[in-house]
What we know:
By secondary structure, this protein is mainly α. It has 2 domains: about 25-220 and about 330-355, Citrate Synthase, domain 1 (Orthogonal Bundle), CATH 1.10.580; about 230-325, CATH 1.10.230.10. The protein has 16 helices and 3 strands. Strands 1-2-3 form a 3-stranded antiparallel sheet. The chain binds carboxymethyl coenzyme *A. Carboxymethyl coenzyme *A binds near residues 228, 262, 309 and 311. Carboxymethyl coenzyme *A binds near residues 228, 259, 266, 309 and 316.
Amino acid sequence: xxxxxxxxxxxxxxxxxxxxxxxxxxxxxxxxxxxxxxxxxxxxxxxxxxxxxxxxxxxxxxxxxxxxxxxxxxxxxxxxxxxxxxxxxxxxxxxxxxxxxxxxxxxxxxxxxxxxxxxxxxxxxxxxxxxxxxxxxxxxxxxxxxxxxxxxxxxxxxxxxxxxxxxxxxxxxxxxxxxxxxxxxxxxxxxxxxxxxxxxxxxxxxxxxxxxxxxxxxxxxxxxxxxxxxxxxxxxxxxxxxxxxxxxxxxxxxxxxxxxxxxxxxxxxxxxxxxxxxxxxxxxxxxxxxxxxxxxxxxxxxxxxxxxxxxxxxxxxxxxxxxxxxxxxxxxxxxxxxxxxxxxxxxxxxxxxxxxxxxxxxxxxxxxxxxxxxxxxxxx
Length: 380
Ligand code: CMC
């Protein structure tokens, strides 16, 4: 349908270029993802999450001094305001973990004196605080709901190490830290995905960073976006509990016109490179442990969905079994996605505010026209 400017309405904004960004680019045909010019395979292999955060926020990879300074700033900002911990203590048992995270991140803004300060320096400090505190929120919430007290992070360690430590109360091994760090690198940014777009729309009104990131968390929660990783694990666990054949299970879903979570993508027309990296991780982890069940189920599903629907897996398909094999609760998979994507959301907000213009598209009105108000007493 043509709008007032003569252009066509695009359902779901597919393929629409809404803004310019220097942060990340996706080649959907080739299955390539690049952060600021660096291929995701290169970053996953050779850079830590903190280096990627620096890259996204600053444009280049850090030298040692710059990395040390970022880590110092993140460490200094990690402590949660006590009232935010109190909120975590009081959330109902039935709350969705992403709703808890959304609420707690929003509450962080209440206790930040700079919440509405809009200088680039203040926004940079808020980005640091947000990124540093999101893992602390998730870990504290996970412990409190299990009747345990939150644990303070260790001072020197990486964000990956500290998150696992704050969650489990035990220092993770090098392999777990390394795998988790890679997951954080892979999820840090991804073009103008739904949650990032949400954050930029909110930012474009010159609202504050906490509002924009809370909104982004709300968008990520949905099962068509970040919520898919939890649904993938639910499917794998359901197959296991029922003792079902994964091929029959997934064929039944497809026959019933149900979506198979973790498959398909708006941009990729081939395998999501993040899925390929995680597939290899799951395979290696499974072989190391001599327990290949989740990998075997996943590959059977992958081959079936590919041959029946021509769809490839996205990042959520293999992140599910990766996290599960690391002993993480499926309920926390999407909050962990948010932990990593906070790097991208904040980087996009900093970029948005460098050259802001209100994001305000239009809708093609297809409703009724020409009506007049009947007095209420005369309405049927
Ligand atoms: N299972 C079964 N069929 C599917 C799936 C799927 N996962 N994904 C797409 N299709 C089919 C869909 O039914 C439609 O078929 P038809 O034309 O016959 O009606 C066709 O493929 C096109 O689907 P669409 O919904 O128009 O495509 P989209 O670009 O709007 O959707 C998507 C992209 C990711 C929402 C969709 O592929 C999907 O629902 N996937 C499952 C949820 C998921 O894994 N989400 C995570 C996305 S990647 C990580 C992230 O960014 O969060």
